[in-house]
Automatic annotation (TrEMBL):
The keyword Repressor applies. CDD domains: WHTH_GntR. This is Pyruvate dehydrogenase complex repressor. Residues 260-279 are annotated as: Disordered. InterPro entries: GntR_C, TF_FadR/GntR_C, Tscrpt_reg_HTH_GntR, WH-like_DNA-bd_sf, WH_DNA-bd_sf. Keywords: DNA-binding, Repressor, Transcription, Transcription regulation. Gene3D superfamilies: GntR ligand-binding domain-like (1.20.120.530), Winged helix-like DNA-binding domain superfamily/Winged helix DNA-binding domain (1.10.10.10). It comes from Yoonia maricola. It comes from the Bacteria. One of its GO terms (molecular function) is DNA binding. Transcriptional repressor for the pyruvate dehydrogenase complex genes aceEF and lpd.
Length: 279
């Protein structure tokens, strides 16, 4: 015999099954997710994690549908949605690309001020020292083995470029190395913020890194510093990794200050030469 329950209505007694039937419950029917929604979520996640980067071309429609095991109509629906939201962009006859979702961290007028005022340069290096020191510490603790392999692979490319004495390649790989550490720290806000900052660095807004890599003694020192950073990360030494990054950026700050002084001295020397020649 089922137990009886008293309801709020006076003198009403009902069975347990009746009570369950009328009691309000906070559940709703589960709807089967559309395949296109699954495609959207996957591509969004890859962009958010920095795996798919601005300007990167997606595989062809056929290849992508096969990789994701969805029909072409479902794939087209997903890509159309992502394009409408500004995450993807299509180029006639060229395919679909990841949109420039980063943009610039600063307004163009402010970027111009950065490029023409030395104090902005040194504040930028100070900001990097704080953020990248934290990123290196996090990466030593949180990076997966694969993350560390990526960092080590880039460092090995740096060694190869160093042997070839190619300053442009070294400068490019230098940025890749530091960004790989930020990626390995697994903080998506830090990742996208610093990636945007690095785009300004690549464009030479703050200073010309290629000049720094043209100097033999500086190049050797920079490579040694990157080796110390990499070793600390591979050994999963958080404090050692943070200190190595901070020491590296301290050196960059001093080297840049010395370079600026040298440039100013050379400018005055040129003026003296012109003046002497005209006497």
């Amino acid at each position: 015999m089922q137990p009886l329950f008293c309801c709020e209505t006076p003198n009403l007694v009902i069975s347990f099954d009746q009570y369950k039937a009328i009691r309000p419950m906070p559940f709703e029917p589960v709807q089967q997710e559309k395949l296109s929604h699954g495609v959207i979520r996957q591509i969004e996640g890859l962009i958010l994690r920095g795996i798919l980067r601005p300007g990167e071309r997606l595989p062809s429609e056929r290849e992508l549908s096969e990789r994701m095991s969805v029909s072409r109509p479902s794939l087209r629906e997903a890509l159309s949605d992502l394009q409408e939201r500004g995450l993807l962009t299509s180029k006639a006859g060229a395919g679909v690309y990841i949109a420039d979702v980063l943009g610039s961290a600063f307004a163009p007028a402010l970027v111009t001020l950065f490029a023409t005022h030395d104090e902005a340069v040194f504040d930028y290096i100070s900001f990097r020292r704080d953020m990248e020191g934290l990123a290196a510490e996090r990466a030593a603790r949180l990076a997966s083995d694969t993350d560390l392999k990526v960092i080590n692979t880039i460092f090995e490319k740096m060694e190869t470029a160093h042997q070839k004495r190619n300053p442009a390649d070294e400068a490019h790989l230098d940025a890749d190395f530091h960004l790989s550490i930020i990626e390995a720290s697994h903080n998506i806000i830090m990742l996208h913020m610093m990636r945007s900052m690095y785009e300004l660095l690549r464009e030479g807004v703050f200073y010309n890194r290629t000049i720094m890599f043209k100097q033999r003694t500086t190049r050797d020192t920079l490579l040694d510093q990157h080796r110390v950073i990499n070793d600390a990360l591979q050994n999963r030494d958080p404090e050692g990794a943070r200190k190595a990054v901070e020491a590296h950026l301290n050196f960059v700050e001093i080297a840049l200050s010395d370079q600026q002084k040298s440039d100013r001295n050379e400018a005055f020397a040129q003026k003296r030469l012109e003046h002497e020649a005209g006497r």
